[in-house]
Amino acid sequence: MHCKNRLNIAESCEFALPKGEIHEKDTILWVSALFSPNSIGNNRRENKKITEVRETMRILAVDDEQIFCDLLKTRLKQLGHTQVKTVLSGPDALKIAAAEGNAVECFIVDIQMKPMDGIELVRHLRAIPHHQATPIVMLSALSDKSSIDAAFIAGANDYITKPLDMVELKIRLEMARKILDERAHAQLMHQHLLKQEAILYPSANFDGEILLDEVDGAVSMLSMENFLLKQGSIRLRQSSAIGFHMVGAETYFEMLEPTYYATLIGDIAQAISQSLSAFPHMLVCPGSGDIVALLIDESNVDLQNIRSNLQHQLETLRPRFTAVDMTLPEISIGEPVRTGLFGKHGPTTLVSRARRAGQAASRAGSNISFRAVA
Amino acid sequence: MSGAAAKTTAAQGAVEQALAGLRRDFCKGLEERICRIETARVSLGAGAQGTARALSVISAEAHRISGVAGSLGLASIGDMARDLETAIEGLPRGVLPAERGAELDMQVERLLDLLEEHLVDD
Question: Within 13 A of A190's CA, how many CA atoms are on the CB side?
């Protein structure tokens, strides 16, 4: 599997990166500021440049109602977003997305359109390499719950309900900008890692989130929390989260270069995703060798079945490990966790509780074990 | 009034003006929407295929009206259109049971009346 996972080690960064066009010069400036103790805090002008934050994004909005497009443009302008393009169909959006490369920094996509609906458009957008991580905010009617789930699974990051509310629009776009920031950090580090992996290796963060751009159903922590927060408590109660833990992850992390470690996590996440293909699901990799799957609208999970599916999927990785004389990692699966209707656990604790369950299973030694053939 | 406050007021005024223009455009376009719904409404009950197609057209139009009207501050139209869309979504896929026919037709009628009230001349 070709995996282009990115290490998100931005948590170790002391600066906010400039948004928008990021040039090589900026990368070097930022990285050298990070890793050269002499440069940190000594150059006000450079630090100012690094912390400069652009407030607006280049937005492409897609809705098959011309009046709604015009309205959205007016409202976005009111919020300070002046670089907004609108199109009336998915195919038109794809033309712009493909032709203009990274020029689009955020998509706003209506779910219910014809002939190509918003969910299909999201799938196509995510297939464009430079838009695998671009924030996508869906527009939907309140009644579109199942479509919203499908949009998240296809790769959307958030949604706004119609009729349009200015406060909601503002909050959702701030969230999109946050995602953009997060991705910009990760991208910069990824670019630099490819060039100077050896120098950066000690700084890679084992506890940090890994963004699994090419894994089916994978989203960022921010997107998943966003999704969880938007679910009603009754509906959320019907969903389950399962924590998976790679046993001895830290040893693999220390043994491998960061990009290879991220690829390993990506391969395992893909195997997990495939083993859950019967359920609508999302995945996150919050760090420390943990992977959490959210099974949407699935409260009765047959763990034994998932276990055997995962075993089968992981076996397909064996030749790759054998080829490099490595042992296939053991994976533990935690008991599924859910939110109680009146419980003390909020929706966003679901991920941390699932992580703990995965780690507990690891400590209990109930791991799926795969040993490379000697 | 300070310079900044005057600027904000002017910007707000421009937005209000733009929104009023969009509301006008929406109301001008209502005639076409009414026609589409009316045409589909005729096919309700005209065979399984015709009914299914009519329900799909009315539901899609109600969905579009609901999203736009509500966002333009025309809440009564938005709400009524959404209720109609929800009612159609609640039906068995593409089927209009006989006992629901009159009720749904009444709902369509009420929406059409409301849309007509908002019609403006070009």
Answer: 19
Distance from CA of B56 to the nearest CA of A (A): 12
How do A240-246 and A290-295 pair as beta strands?
antiparallel
The answer to whether A143 faces chain B, any CB pair under 8 Å, is yes
Of A74, A142, A164, the CB nearest to B15: A74
What distance in Å separates the CA atoms of residue A245 and residue A285, rounded to the nearest whole number?
10
- CB-based contacts of A311: which residues, under 8 Å, 6+ apart? A368, A370
Q: Confidence class of residue B23 from pLDDT cuts 50, 70 and 90?
A: very high
Judging contacts by C-beta atoms under 8 Å, the chain B residues touching residue A163 are 66-67, 69-71, 75, 78
Q: What are the chain A neighbours of B70 within 8 Å (beta carbons)?
A: 162-164
Q: Could you tell me if residue A294 is left (phi over 0), alpha (psi between -120 and 50 degrees) or otherwise beta? A: beta
Residue B24 structure tokens: 């006008």
Whether the pTM exceeds 0.80: the reply is no
Distance CA A188, CA A192 (A): 6
Q: Which of residues 75-94 of A touch B (CB under 8 A)?
A: 77-78
For B78, counting Cβ atoms within 10 Å of its Cβ (0-12 exposed, 13-18 middle, 19+ buried), the class is buried
Rounded average pLDDT per 10-residue block, chain A, 374 residues: 33 34 34 32 39 71 95 93 94 89 87 91 91 90 78 90 91 89 73 55 71 83 82 73 91 85 89 89 91 84 86 85 81 85 67 90 70 34
What is the ipTM, given to two decimal places?
0.87
Q: How confident is the model at residue B79 (pLDDT cuts 50, 70, 90)?
A: very high
Cβ–Cβ < 8 Å for A55, A146: no
Closest by Cβ to B25, choosing from A67, A77, A164: A67
What's the rounded Cα separation, in Å, for the pair A257 and B122?
68
Interface of A with B in 175-234 (CB under 8 A): none
